[in-house]
């Protein structure tokens, strides 16, 4: 195989991994809806608990358990990951709750806004320079949020909460530059004590759904796999693809979620909301085009 063919094969594999990861994330609302009747908080704590156990298994298989314990013993890193864990828990909690109450479209909006929120954090916190096109994209997105606020009759807090928490989480992970599996293991470990305490409380009070039926119990355990497998696919994609390609692939997730919410769940989409979404899509078009141009400029420099 020539070097060119090898690069092509690596790129194709990366696209497959990335598309698979973002497609699975987009289809997750279907999974959580199988747990209809289970409280969002119980789904959340089980998701964290089983994710930790699966992560630890993968760490042992890949012989990275020492790296994991090194992160646990490093006080500064552990403290930062504790804050990341809090943001991730809020993000997961809001997302799962939004799905259980049939507000998938608003959660899709949150993940549409996330890349633009990350750019905003980069400017405000890291003092990064942004292009004219990125300023225009953020402006379009801001107008879209205002229109959607009018359409919903209230601030779309689910979308903003998801975008802010994931944007902040991504910012922390970018600064730390740690392995995805190792850092997620620490983050879920931090949430282990409150999660276990809550599970014991539910069991003692008789309000636990886990154990009431085999299917429900297996679905709650499977939430761990549904969390870790897309993450590993995503990690495989980022190791093989340019960042701009990964950035564009991520729009698969909210697009799938949007069509689930509108086409399958039949969530309300009045003309004002649709105009707001069009403004968000326009912002993402401008942002994506700028990413592609920037990538080409780097390739030719």
Helices and strands in order, then pairings?
Blueprint: H1 3-33, H2 40-61, H3 65-73, H4 75-100, H5 104-124, H6 132-152, H7 157-176, H8 180-190, H9 192-205, H10 214-238, H11 243-249, H12 252-264, H13 271-300
Helix pairs in contact: 1-10, 1-12, 2-4, 2-8, 2-9, 2-10, 3-8, 4-7, 4-8, 5-6, 5-7, 5-12, 5-13, 6-13, 11-13
Number of helices: 13
- Indicate the percent of residues in helices: over 70%
Largest sheet: none
User: What gyration radius follows from the Cα positions, in whole Å?
Assistant: 20 Å
Beta-sheet strand percentage? under 5%
Gross geometry: globular
Structural class: mainly alpha
- Uncertain spans, ≥5 residues at pLDDT below 50? none
End-to-end CA span: 27 Å
What is the number of beta strands?
0
Q: What is the average per-residue confidence, as pLDDT, rounded to a whole number?
A: 84
Number of separate domains: 1
The helix/strand series, from N terminus to C terminus, equals HHHHHHHHHHHHH
Domain EamA: 13-149, 158-287
Membrane topology: Multi-pass membrane protein
GO cellular component, one term: plasma membrane
Family: Belongs to the EamA transporter family.
Description:
The protein has 301 residues and is mostly helical. The protein has one domain. It has 13 helices and no strands. Helix 2 (40-61) crosses helix 10, helix 5 crosses helix 7 and helix 11 (243-249) packs antiparallel against helix 13 (271-300). It is globular and about 55 Å long. The model has no long low-confidence stretch (mean pLDDT 84). It holds the Pfam family EamA.
């Amino acid at each position: 195989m020539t070097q060119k063919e090898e690069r092509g094969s690596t790129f194709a594999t990366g696209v497959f991994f990335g598309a698979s990861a973002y497609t699975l994330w987009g289809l997750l609302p279907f999974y959580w809806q199988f747990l209809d009747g289970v409280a969002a908080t119980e789904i959340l704590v089980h998701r964290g608990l089983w994710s930790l156990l699966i992560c630890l298994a993968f760490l042992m298989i890949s012989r990275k358990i020492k790296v994991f314990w090194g992160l646990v013993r490093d006080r500064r890193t552990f403290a930062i990951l504790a804050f990341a864990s809090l943001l991730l828990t809020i993000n997961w909690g809001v997302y799962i709750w939004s799905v259980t109450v049939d507000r998938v479209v608003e959660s899709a909006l949150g993940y549409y806004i996330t890349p633009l929120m990350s750019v905003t954090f980069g400017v405000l916190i890291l003092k990064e320079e942004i292009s004219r096109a990125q300023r225009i994209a953020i402006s379009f997105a801001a107008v879209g949020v205002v229109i959607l606020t009018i359409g919903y009759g209230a601030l779309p807090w689910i979308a903003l909460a998801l975008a802010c928490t994931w944007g902040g989480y991504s910012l922390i992970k970018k600064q730390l530059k740690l392995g995805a599996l190792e850092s997620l293991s620490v983050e879920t470990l931090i949430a282990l004590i409150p999660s276990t305490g809550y599970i014991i409380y539910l069991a003692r009070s008789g309000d636990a759904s886990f154990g009431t039926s085999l299917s429900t119990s297996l679905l709650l355990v499977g939430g761990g796999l549904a969390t870790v497998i897309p993450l590993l696919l995503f990690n495989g994609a980022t190791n093989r693809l340019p960042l701009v390609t990964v950035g564009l692939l991520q729009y698969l997730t909210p697009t799938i979620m949007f069509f689930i919410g509108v086409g399958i769940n039949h969530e309300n989409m009045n003309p004002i909301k649709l105009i707001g979404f069009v403004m968000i899509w326009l912002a993402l078009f401008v942002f994506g085009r700028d990413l592609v141009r920037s990538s080409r400029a780097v390739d030719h420099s």
